[in-house]
Structures are given as structure tokens and as C-alpha cells.
């Protein structure tokens, strides 16, 4: 009678009052609230009619939708009459409804019904939450229009409504977030799902995080997103990235860098670039990761705009330490930390570096974590444009001091060193050298930092019996020594030329099975859509100014190369006595070279072999001949 | 408020060996996982706990992962409402059929219209619903007011 009453009345007056609809629905519900065999057939028919109005599978025209709105409003008033068993089919219909299919009125009515159902103690909360979470995603047929502007607008509207509904439910039932955690866990897309599905769901999820109820959920949602990111990440192989034909633009530049990096770092994890004709290997995972990174970065940006980034950053650090730090196969997921730091360099950026250093020096942490942390630190300080040289020096000082203390308390008797025993030390040394390869030149531009650098016991550490120069990755050692030589960082005690190998057995030994000796987590970013977040703050090797390079051209280097001949050092023996007290083990007192970093060459330059001058003068390779004075 | 009780319990908490250097934290975390859930042992919802260690020794379990059992004496605050107890709660939602209340900030209750005293009638004032008493002019129940009610029936929640 309920549906017939309603449709009859509508036929008669064109509308039905709320109270009439309510009464008829209550009647129907009451009539069915008994064992099925006792229900009168006419009541059963009315109930079925109600079911046909509230039917998720039906296509609705405007009339049917208006009827639906009335029915939903009536049900909202009668939630206390709904029984979980006797009205099971009605409930399953309600919970299966997709709000994406309906207009504004029906959506509002449906959401109001859901929130009222959730407020009934202990009965329908699970079902309601499940219904809301499954509505994070649109129906399959709409997913293809994911990038369409109208779809984007509708999506934002619906997500906002869903967040409000969840918020309202939490106001009424304070412990709802606990159940919500479980529901989201069950419904979360996996890494094998379609890209659109993953992206839309995670966008909505992070919207929940932004809402007030995010406080109750803590870092749970973000942790799940990071888990998904890393899942996708470890499934990408290097071949997938390098084979991407259509991304020639970015990749060309990247490949350049890759080439340089291969020379510099000897990373043999990347296949040779000539091998581009390998079969295209399905980079679906890379695309999904790309899309997801865009969503996460935009979320971080919106948090930064709200001024809540620092709060969120604490959570991010916990998640990073737990999930990402020890994951050595991840290539791009860690860049969310990079981006978060770039949004707030002074607080978050510095905090990240400090926490990584803390992990490195902490005796209680396991060696793998410590080695990972210092690799992260090195790669981060090298690549982050937004970290200023004073901060870099402060962190570097901590590293050097730790290595120095480590060396002092080593009593190395044996000739043959087992790199495995001192792996944390070697990782620290390699990190120091890597950072200086990128940053030495910029540090030299600050006089106080320069003097700090020269006063560090770097030479002592590197020429210690533990022989880090032999054990660390040869390409890094080579580059570092080259720059140190140009900057006059050390004197002869630290050898300036090393054999030209890309990697050695010893570095493999200290790196272990995970090859932590070749772990540079913030190497150039290769995903195209999300690249726009990373690129502005990323330092490419090709852009780095080294101490031996000249702004004008490379030839100047060669010109002054003879002056930098190694035997030169031996000829200036006299200065050592005159200079700062050299009796200490500290061999880094080359303060004299700071004076030499000037544009004006001394007259003595013309007489390189003369040894009767107090202050030695060696033309640093950075001199531009065009500014030489007339003499 | 009825229904709140404190209890002392002697518990054994099993801790994973990796947490052995931060024992107090590990034990607290384990106990905290029981917070705001109904526990049959305590016959109520655990609201807060305070622990003290009974001894320095712990027995290690046999098995693949050598968990060890730490004996703990805990002071617990438990909420276990029984029928006919009087509770207070804040009103969050009013409708003709029911008043929804939040008790102690974490649990919700609904008072059905048939259980509300006769004198209260549902009215809509200034756009919001309220229950106004017909006998006392200024006695009104609105969203945000505190009400006292007797427990009719408490549904025990199981941990899923």
C-alpha cells in the first residue's frame, strides 16, 4: 500500500506530504517485521514495491528519482523501525546504492539516511561506513572519463559530500574512526588495480586525512598510501623506465645525466644505453606510481598551504623510518620526502637531515639502517638545492666528527682489512665524499665555511689505516680527490690519483648483498607527470660547479693543469714549518690555499720553482686569464 | 556517574624480543590496544591504565619466536553500565523519534521517544529541534545540553 499510496497521491495532487509518506513507510516496515511465513501477501507486495523504488540497479529518470527522494526521506525518519534481519533486503539495497548515479537531491537524501542509520547504536555502522567508502570510487563506466573536466568537478563535489557525511557520523558516534580504519583497509585498492581506480580512491582517502577526523586516524591513512607507493615502486624494473619511447624529452636530459652518473658513480644497476632496442616491457606500474605521486604531492602542497605541513611531517618521518628507509629497491617513492622538505626548507628540510644523521650515529640502530640512513643523507644533501651550505656544513661536521672518533679508537694491526667489520664507517666516509663532490665548490664560496672545512680532520680520516679511499666506491673517490686537489684541500699525505676502476671488490664487500655502496636514493627522478614537483629543487650533476671547472670553458682547465702537477707539493716544503702548527695528526691545515683563491695572481707565479718565498703561490685552476693584472 | 569503576589486575603481557630494550613502552602499547573496546575479562570498556612491574624476571616462551611474559600489575579504569544505572551524556542530535547522546566522549546512546518523559514535546524552535517541557517553561533539551538517563539495555560489542 505504501508505494501505491504514494504513486496514487502523486497522480492526484502532484505531491505527497512528508508525514503521509512517513506514515506509509512505517506501516510497510511494521507489517513485514515478523517471520516470513506470517506476513500477509498484500504487505509483502507493498514491501516489494518499496524495494523497487529503492533499487540501486535501476536507471532513474526524474520522476523515479523524485519518488526515490521521498522514500529515502521517509526512511530517514523511520530508522528506529528498521530491523537488521526482517528488513535485510531493504538494507542491502540501500547499502548498494552508488551516489554517483543520482542528482543533488537524491544524493543529499541518501547521505542523510546513511548518517541517520549510522547513529542508531550498534546496528548499522559497519554497513554505512562500508557504503560510504565504496562510494569513494565512481562506477566503472565513469572511470574512463577520469581526466575530463566535468568529471573532475563532480568528483570533487561528491568527495566533499562523503567527507562531510563521515565527519557527521564521527560527531554522532565518536568511535567510528576505529571501524573506518578497518573498512578502508579492506577496500583499499591494490597495486594491480587500474590506475584511475587507485588515483581516485587515494585522493578521497587523503581528503579524509585532511578533515578533522584525520586527527583520530593519525598517520594511518598516509602509512597505507606510502605502502601502496612502495608496492608499486618495487615492481618497476629499470628496463621499464629506460625503454619509454614517448618520454624522449625529459629522458634525453636524464639519459645525459645517467651517462655522467655512470662515469661518476659507476652505477652498474642501469643497463647500457646502447641497449635501447629491448622489447617494451609494460611500464604500467610506473604510470600508476606516477599518478599516485601526483596525488600525494598535491596533498602535501595543500597541507603546506594550510600551514599544517610540519605536523604532517612528523608523521611522514615515522612512516619513512618504518617503511621506506630499509627498502633499497625503491626508486621514486622516497621523493615524497624530498618534495615535503622542499615545501618548508628551514624546518622540515633541516629536520629530515638531522633525523637521518641521528639514525646514523645511534649505536642502538642496526647497521643496515645506519648505512641506509647515511646514504639517504648523502644523496639528499647533494641533490637538494634548497638546503643552504651552512646547514650542509653543520651536518658534514657531525659526520666527520663521528668518523674521526671512530678512527681514533681503532687499533688496526692487520694488513688486510675486512670491509664488512667497518661497513658503517665506510658508508660514512663515502657519504662525506659524495656530499663534497656536489657541494665543495659552493662551500668554498663562504669564507667561514671554507675555513671550517679546512679545519676538519678529513685528511686524517681518509688516510687512516682503515683505508677508506681504497674501500669506498672508486668513482666517488676519484671525483672527490680530483676536486680536493683542485681546492688544495689536502697535502701529499692523501694520494691524489687513484686507479681508474668503476668499482672494486672491496666496495662490494662493504656494501653487502643490498649493495649499499651503490645506493643513491635521490638520483634523478624519471616519472614524467610528477616530475614537475621535483625538478625545480633538484640538483643535476651536469649543473654542479666543481672546484676544478671554470665558468668559461674547459680549456682553461688544461692550461693550468701543468701548474697543478703533483710534484709541486714537494717543493713547498718550507711553508709547512711557517704555517699553522703542523705537529698534530690533523693534516688539513691548508689554510694557505684560501689566500690563493683570489683572482689576482702573485708575481711569484712567474717563477714557479723558486723556494725562497714565505708564502707559496700556486695558481688555482679557477683563475680566468682575462682578469690578470698588468705586470 | 554510575558505571565507572577502578580495578587492580595482575596481568601477564607477552612481549616480542625486539622490544626488550624498551619494555615499558611495549607493555603500554599492548594494553593501549585494548582501550575503548569491550573486554569480557574486565566486563566493561577499558578507559585508562597505569602499570607497575612486579618483578625483574620474565619467562621466555618456547616456540619459533621467543616472546617473554612480563608480569604487570595494572590499575584500570573500566566503564561497565548495567541496566537501571544513571548516566549523563551530551546531546548531539535531536529528532522526533530519538535523542542521541554521547557519554564520556566516546560512547553513544540513543533515547527513543517512548522512553522520554511525557512532558517533553518535540518542537522546532529557531530552525533547530528541541524537546520542550510542558510543565517547566524554561526546561528545554537542545543539542549540546547534558541529560541524565537510565540505562535500559547495553549492547556488548565484540572486538572484530
Explain what the structure shows.
Chain B: Keywords: DNA-directed RNA polymerase, Nucleus, Transcription. Chain B: InterPro entries: RNA_pol_Rpb7-like_N_sf, Rpb7-like. Chain B: Its main location: nucleus. Chain B: One of its GO terms (cellular component) is RNA polymerase I complex. Chain A has 631 residues and is mainly alpha-helical. Chain A contains 32 helices and no strands. The longest helix of chain A is centred in the first third of the chain and has 24 residues, at 149-172. The relative contact order of chain B is 0.19. Chain B has one helix at 23-32; strands at residues 4-15, 38-39, 44-60, 68-79, 86-94, 98-103, 107-112, 120-125, 128-133, 140-141, 146-150. Chain B has 160 residues and is mostly beta strands. The chains are: A mainly alpha (631), B mainly beta (160). Chains A and B meet through loops of A and strand 6 and strand 7 of B.
Count of runs of 4 or more consecutive helical residues of chain B: 1
**Largest interface: chains, residues each:** A-B, 17 and 20 residues
List the uncertain runs of chain A: 1-14, 244-282, 551-631
Strands of chain B, total number: 11
Number of E-state strands of chain A: 0
Report the total helices of chain A: 32
* Residue-averaged pLDDT of chain A: 76
Integer tally of domains of chain B: 2
CATH topology term of the largest domain in chain B: Dna Ligase, domain 1
Task: Give the averaged pLDDT of chain B, no decimals.
Answer: 86
H/E series of chain B, N to C? EHEEEEEEEEEE
Tell me the quaternary state. heterodimer
Order of adjacent strands in the largest pleated sheet of chain B: 1-4-3-2
Largest sheet of chain A: none
Gyration radius from CA atoms of chain A, angstroms:
34 Å
The Rg value of chain B, from CA coordinates, equals: 22 Å
Helix/strand class of chain B: mainly beta
Question: Stretches of chain B where pLDDT falls below 50 for ≥5 residues?
Answer: none
Strand content range of chain A: under 5%
